[in-house]
Amino acid sequence: MIAAPHIRRARSVRAIMYEVSLALVPAALAHVWFFGPGLLLNTLIAACVALACEAFMLTLRGQPRQPYLQDGSALLAAVLIAFALPPLTPWWVTATAAAFAMIVAKHLYGGLGFNTFNPAMAGYAVVLVSFPTELALWTQPRGEHDALSWLHTLHVTFTGALPDDLSWDHITRATPLDSVQTGLTQGAMLSELLLDPRLSAYGGHPWITINVLIAIGGVWLVFRRLISWHIPIGVIGGVVLSALAGRMIDSDAYSPVFFHLLSGSVMLAAFFIATDPVSAATSRRGKLLYALGIGVLIYSIRAWGSYPDGVAFAVLFMNMLVPLIDHFTIPRAYGHAR
Amino acid sequence: MTALTLHDFPGGLSLPPNKAQQTAQPISTLALPDRVWVPLLQHRGKLSRPCVKRGDKVGLGSVIGLADGAFSANVHATIAGTVGRIESRVIAHRSGLSAPCVEILADREQAQDFAAPLDTDFRLVDPNILRQRVADAGIVGLGGASFPTALKLTAEADQSLHTLVLNGAECAPYISCDEMLMRERAGDIMRGAQSMLHILQINRCMIALEEDKVLAIDAMQQALEDLSDSRFTLCLVHAKYPEGGERQLIQVLSGKEIPSDGLPVDIGYLCHNVGTAAAVFDLFATGRPLTSRIVTVCGDGVAQPQNVIAPFGTSIQSLLDHAGGLLPGSHRLIVGGPMMGFTVDSTDVPIDKGCNCILVMPEENARQLNDTMPCIRCGECETVCPASLLPQQLYYHARSSHLERLPDFHLFDCIECGCCDYVCPSNLPLTQYFRYAKDELWFRSQQQARSNQARERYEQREQRLLRQQQERDAARAERQQATRDAKQKQSDILAAVARAKARKKGDSS
């Protein structure tokens, strides 16, 4: 006997992973336009390393390689790692992040479907704490400076050194979140800091464009029912609520709401990272709680922690709480008392 | 039609309906088969007891199996003829079970053996008598679950019952026997329902059907006008699977949930399929017991999909032949719809009271289970579950054999509708796992109960032995005491005698 149902919706794990990756393409194109081809190169490095590690681990574990290598999950993790890293990250940093993500965060926990932690964020967090210098430098966006060429990018990524015609000062500077945090710790007033057009110009800043494109891709995923709305709403809600509270406490020490939403990787976290189904909470109510926690933690780390952006740590911390959240958020089944 | 607020139930799916082909032509009638194998198990509950033997002549409608015990139902000869063998054969059952079947070889003349039709208005007849007639006629729910109807018409003890729901919400794809019945016999359905209302002594009937069944709605509306019975309300519900489940349907109509361990009647509702109402009408109008039903024969593997009236016991093969036979290719033969139906290996299986659909799908269109992936916890299963369960958690615990955790996740509230399977991107056979887990837990609880019984018996025996021993000891002690007392008495007497003698001696000296 063959078990019912005999029909199914034609949507596979692979289709989901590829469609989610595809939703990041517009944002990636904007990224390349503003910051040069570093993102693509990093994606390529991360994807090659991730797939190689995945193949290696699958072999070690005696699992079939073909279905898992084709499922798109390693590729998606690679894309997310690349989005998190600066465009000119040395190749070995990217490779370390991808390898840690696949080997430790994914396969040592049991592979696809069993990882407790979001692999991309685990990989990123490891390099973030291990190689802070390499991760501090962001390429200057196009506008004040021409975007880097492929040749320059390749040179920097693989040799770690600059071509003779460039100097670090010319091509890099801190991200807006970084500048504000550094400025605030040095005793500057937020209102002064935001006078810098690179920080305050919501409309034209490359980060805003990229984040808006990420959000559009994410909304598309919600619309396609590939991710549930609870997580993006929860993360954004958590950040917005905390930011509003901060503004009420002291509007000169805590950045505006939109600055928080559009200057770092909140959008990426809300739509693409926290929504990793494997490491997120199960029920709809649980997802909302989980995501709210991430939002509040992102804000807390930014406001009071030593990292300018808190996405990776917020996500990893909430990953740890998932079993607890799941335990307390079993939905009321049909016909049971409230 | 009265305006009515409809409610929603959680989860559910809009499935592609796939009904156009088999509803394009009217219901046809199967030619008289040469023989039928009538299963004696065609209802929820216990097997009927055969009451004919080889060589007996039976008419159409003669009783061949008597209801035996709780939740059982009578079985009747579905064609007139001679009883042949009575033997166990594979029946159309999810488990692949065999059950005793009665072979009837058809006569050329089809003699009828019906009870007399009601000669008076049913309103003048005592509900108990009508209910008994429904039970005698072997009528069971024709929606697929095959629960004996007479039992479900016994609700007068419960004063809270107020509404009869006629279920015409046929939400599974392909199946269209109820829709065709409503299109062709709307008036009969309602008259059947009128007698049900009389039996139940209630005054409200909601007829539910899906808003996309335009022709059925027209027919039912027309019948309602002709009847002009203010107790009836036609309720058009959104087409969403599994709306035809009585719990879901009642939630849509009333906004209320039936308690998990309860029945619809607990919140005042009772649900009967439209086909059941038509069968009740037939019984009272003609005396005809339940001997046949409408079966949807359909699917891309069938040449001429259609709805057929077929006597129970007819082989699936004759239904397929009637529908133009199979198209070339490899096929999956399914009894029931594509979401909950089960496969059968042979076309030589007899149809029964619960067979609403014979579906033949080309193997390449059917779901295969060879490309499953691990669960990625996407949660799609949760969003479609009409019972608000967490299928992925159930799956996790069922798979890792933490079966004892499953009741915490309300495993037994799963209605096995298959929605979670349908959407699972990892193509996991979730419902199959849940069915297995339920069976396993049920088996364990049975075993537990048995071992508890054995332990109790043992303990009682130990106690009994101990008590007997104590009683024996006490009796012995008593006897010994009595002996001692007797000896004492004896020696007292002897001593007294001796003393007396001594005194006598003294006196005389």
Descriptive notes:
The complex is a heterodimer of chains A (338) and B (509). Chain A contains 19 helices and 2 strands. Chain A has 338 residues and is an all-alpha fold. Chain A has helices spanning 13-22, 25-35, 38-60, 65-69, 73-84, 91-106, 119-130, 132-136, 150-159, 168-171, 176-185, 190-193, 197-200, 206-223, 230-249, 257-263, 266-273, 284-304, 311-328, and strands at residues 138-139, 172-173. In chain A, helix 5 (73-84) runs parallel beside helix 7 (119-130), helix 6 crosses helix 7 (119-130) and helix 15 packs parallel to helix 18. In chain A, strands 1-2 form a two-stranded antiparallel sheet. Chain A is globular and about 70 Å long. Chain B has 11 helices and 17 strands. In chain B, the strands form 4 sheets. A 6-stranded mixed β-sheet of chain B has the order 1-14-13-17-15-16, with helices on both faces. In chain B, helix 9 (391-399) packs across helix 11 (430-508). The radius of gyration of chain B is 33 Å and the shape is elongated.
What's the arrangement of secondary structure elements?
The complex is a heterodimer of chains A (338) and B (509).
Chain A: H1 13-22, H2 25-35, H3 38-60, H4 65-69, H5 73-84, H6 91-106, H7 119-130, H8 132-136, E1 138-139, H9 150-159, H10 168-171, E2 172-173, H11 176-185, H12 190-193, H13 197-200, H14 206-223, H15 230-249, H16 257-263, H17 266-273, H18 284-304, H19 311-328
Antiparallel strand pairs in A: 1-2
Chain B: E1 28-29, E2 35-39, E3 49-50, E4 57-58, E5 63-66, E6 75-76, E7 81-90, E8 98-106, H1 127-136, H2 149-152, E9 163-168, H3 177-200, E10 205-210, H4 214-227, E11 232-237, H5 246-254, E12 269-273, H6 274-286, E13 292-298, E14 306-311, H7 316-322, E15 331-335, E16 342-343, E17 357-362, H8 380-384, H9 391-399, H10 419-423, H11 430-508
Parallel strand pairs in B: 1-14, 9-10, 9-12, 10-11, 13-17
Antiparallel strand pairs in B: 2-8, 3-5, 4-7, 5-6, 7-8, 13-14, 15-16, 15-17
Helix pairs in contact in B: 3-4, 3-6, 9-11
